[in-house]
């Protein structure tokens, strides 16, 4: 059975909390922002002030799985995650237009 974790939008995770949630170091989360797997509202702010929502947790977990299961580096994981997202968007668009 697949576990689902949700972060309440009114109480987002800090960098440290996100790192602990995925079993990683803080620097690994900083790297996720650098390769654009994760996005922060104010990239100029120091990492200690960053906050992440539920979608960031899901993307971080997916990146962790790609590293673990396939040996993907974070640049490769970023590409895979972006392609998966685009594929989902295109399928939804096709479905909305009755093409799927």
Quick summary:
The chain is mainly alpha-helical and 100 residues long.
Question: How widely separated are the two ends?
Answer: 28 Å
What is the number of beta strands? 2
Task: Note the main sheet.
Answer: 2 strands, antiparallel
The strands making up the biggest β-sheet line up spatially as 1-2
Shape: globular
Mean pLDDT: 92
Description:
The chain has helices spanning 15-21, 26-34, 54-70, 74-96, and strands at 13-14, 51-52. It has a two-stranded antiparallel ribbon. The protein is 56% helix and 4% strand. The mean pLDDT is 92. The chain has four helices and two strands, in the order βααβαα. The protein is mainly alpha-helical and 100 residues long.
Feature tags:
100 residues; mainly alpha; two-stranded antiparallel sheet; 2 strands; globular
Write the layout of secondary structure elements.
Layout: E1 13-14, H1 15-21, H2 26-34, E2 51-52, H3 54-70, H4 74-96
